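Handoff note, outgoing to incoming analyst
You'll be picking up this chain. Sequence as last confirmed:
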Amino acid sequence: MLIAMVVLASVAAFYLMGKYGAVSEQHERQDNRVAALAEAKKALIAYAATYIDTHPGEMGFLPCPDTDEGGANPEEGQQDVGACGNLNTNTIGRLPYRSLDIAPQKDEANECLWYAVSGYYKNAPKTEMLNEDTNGMLQISNAAGAVIYGNNPEDRVVAAVIAPGTNLNQDRSGGVANTEQCGGNYTVANYLEGDGVIDNSVLNNNPDQADSFIKAGTNSESGAPAFNDLILTITRDEIWNAVKRRRDYRTRMEDLTQKIANCVVAYGNAGSVKNLPWPSDLDLSATGYRDDTSYADSATPASLLGRLPDLVSNSEAQLDASGSGSGGPPDFGGAVPTDPPSCNQCKKDYDKYLEELAEELAEYRLDIAEANTDYQTCLLDPTKTEPECDAELADELADAKKDYNEELDEIAADELADYQACLVKHTCTTVSGGFVADCTGCQSDYDKAIADAIKKRDKELNGIPGQYTSCIKKAKGDPDDIADCEKEREEDIADANEDYAEDVAEAQALLELCSSVNSCPTGGGSKGIEKMISSCLVTPDFELWQHWKDHFFYVVSGDFSPGSSSAVCAGNCVTVAGTPRAGIVLFSGERQPGVDRNDPIGKDVVGTADTDSRLTIGNYLDGSNAGNYQDAAGNKTYDWFGNDYLYCINPNATAGDPLSSAECPK
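Most recent structure output, in case you need it:
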């Protein structure tokens, strides 16, 4: 009897161990599946957050899936940028684990994970504009067919990681090259399926249109039809919260705003009358918010507050017709008279004249640098006071300026006189023959000087974030040291902008001198600039502007608009902190809660266009900045509200003096 009881107990124990051991094993497999999905999601978000580190000027992009069968990118687990679908279309394939720098991630059926990515977020081919307002293009339903993500455009999912589960009578046979880790094949329908209405393996392949996916439930695998795809989603906010948590995110956007303000200043300073361009319209739906060419100045703006323009042809046409702002770059159009070949002999005298000018300018710069070095040394001298050092610096700078002017007078009396005598001797007109090239040289020298100034400025500004980060690390949380870092950063930015303004003014002076010497014809008032931003910013700043261009707004004072002949504040100037400004560049930051910025180019799963919420100024600018939209006279008051960031275009006291830019006071 005892033996029988022991045997019975052993059998029962074996039965229970088998039953609950199997359950435990099932739970373990499910836990592994959840962990695999979570690891993949984490890696994808990290990829998007760090994308700008390897692709300057671009944020938030996700990798393409692994879609090939030993084709353009044969290594398993690598994204296939050569087979990633058409522009702005969604794409699906296996998770590119190698590109994410993680191990192959597998579900409870030992199948590698799959991955769908919105066309706006995939990194090939890249959409024209990707920023924190860019919606995903995937709609997700639960097992019952009810939409759980994507009823509204802003709720659509950016990407989905999919565990395909066990084989449901699908052909998952191998034999395909480069599938050592995952096995099987790359045919999507052999791994993903749906409920008969929604099919996870099929995309519509239409640009800008959302696709539907269905998430399996507990009993979906036993249904008819059976489906078992488990989906973990990645939302827009999850991507951009990770991007914006970067310490350098805000600095990048503030620096870009500053550089754009400098471009506006450079445009204004290109002529003797410092007119600024008209703004772009707020509503760009007709040509598209993501198209660079949509950001063009309006010929008849109803409001002097609008989007920041790149193309400024309407402003150029009005300035040229009115003549206001004349003194800009030369206009080399029109008929050219013929000169005798002997006139070209004067070119040597002219080249010598320019060479002497360049040498004296270089010497003058050295004198200024030496004066500044002496000043720094003086400040370190315990026997000297700061006012004494200031006085010594002023004396040295005055002496340097006096010497420079004296040398210019000598050059004018010698080399310039020789050149002018040559023109008279050979009866040469100064806009023909070899001298057309001289006028063209004036413009090319000016263009090169401005390009060099921009390059120099951007190099200085781009180095500041790294210096600031290093300073903050050394501060180790000390409030005083952190404050010193902030002060040093602001001083460095101010110095870079001041140097840039001096370089621009110097280039303008040389252009006017060169044009005068050669009697070059000038336009009626145009600045000679057709693209204010794209011809000014350098990569990667230009690419960063391309992706965030809908966030930049601009207001021009009525007294500095193309319709003004004086470009001096005389009653119609915008103000910040009680001070008149020539204009303001405004960067619209993060959306306020409950606000959407949906692009009407997007479509839902049936092809219905999304409602345009980008044409509402209050969805971008905050407080009275938004209320100022109908600023027809360009004379309203602006301030820091909410997430708005302001950079001021400042006039100088004397009409015609160069404009400057600085962060608007708070």
